[in-house]
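#struct-pred
JK: can someone run the complex with flavin mononucleotide? inputs below
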Amino acid sequence: MAGNTIGNHFRITTFGESHGRALGAVIDGVRPGLPIDTGVIQKELDRRRPGQSKVTTARNEPDKIEILSGVHEGKTTGMPICMIIWNTNQRSQDYDKIKEIFRPGHAGYTYLAKYGVSDYRGGGRSSGRETAARVAAGAVTKALLAKRGIEIYGSTIEAAGVRAKKFVKDEIEKNVLRCADPDAAKLMEKKVLKAKKEGDSVGGIIEVVVKGVPAGLGEPVFDKLEAELAKALMSIGAIKGFEVGNGFASARLRGSQNNDPMYFDTKSKRVRTRTNNAGGIAGGISNGEDIVMRIAVKPTSSIVKKQETVTIDGESAMISIQGRHDPCICPRVVPVAEAMTALTIYDHLTRQRLMKQQDRISTLRDTIDLIDRNIVLLLSERQGIARQIGKLKKRSALNVYVKGREQEVLRNASRTARDLGLDEKVVTDIFRTIFALAKSSQRALAEAK
Ligand SMILES: Cc1cc2nc3c(=O)[nH]c(=O)nc-3n(C[C@H](O)[C@H](O)[C@H](O)COP(=O)(O)O)c2cc1C
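RT: done, structure tokens with the ligand placed:
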């Protein structure tokens, strides 16, 4: 199955299904020698893990990470890093009763239409559980970004129709919704639990902020930074909308309201904007301001409430889903969204670094070309002078070839080579070739009538 890899120079592949033996991720493109802390990866996985509260599923899996390759004595080796999470609490029998019925909002029908087979147990590869592998890879990436002063954080800004009114970053991890407004979080929780009690579910909006991104990330035209971020975030199950900066609201503004006034900040010595309606990206390239994105999370598909559907034979049926499901997946999507953002930003940082290296290489090559041209010009000048000496000697009936003179030049060249740390033999060989060239033109001169 294609489409399991994301990234250009820094690539992540995920594998595994929710009710298979295990799932995991392979990260390729990490430089050697970088410290990897499994504790940090585990902490991120715990944020995504089910069974955290009443608003998330009761499926209680430890999601313990095991690193199979690419790390030695706590440091990356430069080889692919393979991380695995064993499935330990699947309860596949929950799905026995519904294995021949399509679940509305789920991918059972579309997977069957595409592949002719479908793993009905918990959605298989389309399951939210696949995102554990992304979070593991994202944790490694977030740590790499942190070293460069780049920080990523997400929060639920709306759930069950309740909108956060303020933003207190420290509050995000203190409530079950991962909302930066503690009062709104309480109201959200109430509404989520009400929907749960009614056998239903709710959706919400997550905001992701990236701080410390340098200006210049993103590639015209198909790999624009927001296009790549949209792809990464929209690849998460249940995400139905993406916006950056003012997003859809910008459609209702005037240019004078939506443009971000620019100025030169003497402190940071860079161009900045007074407002950030663009969300940190212009022309698909980061402008150095915070990158601000929002994603729409649909209400959880698996609900107890009865819904109309069909069986795999096309017969009408009603379905009520009894397994263990989140009435609102927003808090669990937050770490996944952060992970996908981290992977995309790091990939573009890598691309930018390589581009700068390429620039440097081509500048150095240009310098070498100039030096080579000067070498040829000097050779030609030397040749001209040697010819003049030959002419003068001929006029005075002197011997054209003087062995002692050659030895003297070789001695001088050897000494200079030694002083500069160059290979003396190579340098003297070059001079012998130059002598041969000079001698042949002097000989031609001597033979001329
Ligand atoms: C972290 C996470 C957890 C999820 N948990 C559930 C769940 O418990 N029940 C459910 O019906 N869908 C859950 N989903 C969403 C489904 O995976 C998704 O809606 C389904 O595969 C259909 O794909 P689509 O919504 O992108 O069209 C979860 C998604 C994520 C990212």
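RT: quick notes.
The mean pLDDT is 91.
The chain is about 40% helix and 20% strand.
JK: thanks, will look after standup
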